[in-house]
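Figure 2 data, in text form.
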Amino acid sequence: MDMVKKYLKVMSSDFKGNWYKLPNILTQIRLLGSFAVAGLLIFGPKGEKSQLVIAIVFAAIAATDLFDGFFARILHQKTEYGRLLDPIADAALATFALIGLSVNDMYVRVLTVLVIARQMHLLWIFLKADKNGKTPEVVISGKVKTALVSIVILLSLLPENFVPYEYTKEITYLAIAMTICSWIEYWVRASVVAEK
């Protein structure tokens, strides 16, 4: 509980002077947009046109993940607020979209359970490591996992006549494998960091 209070304190103090910076605005859009995607999936109209609109909304919101870090680096606007909010926004977007999609697809259900379990476990690992001042670095397998999960979500949102289901299923298998691989890699790296 102390770690959560620490994060909230850091985020609230850093928020005041940094919320308006472009990279943080993009991250905040992704976080708020995750609720919009969930609302559209659960309460929105059904049909091919609606699916296409939701897919476009998801793609636009997910694209902010490509640009927030890029702009933070080139504009020299890296902030503690952005560092802490970015993984929360990523997790929220993927989790809410996967939950909305898992109603109709067994493979997406498996991916949803793995993604949520991974996020919860890694949150615990990162909080524990950060408590000791030793946060593990972001790993490329985590970025690949995020990209594959986003592709699965996007393909699952598109109307059936856009992409054959077999392709979506194959990419879902890859996303499941990469979710497990990145989970293990983060776990191992956190263990190594904790021992130093």
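Caption note: The two ends are 24 Å apart (CA to CA).
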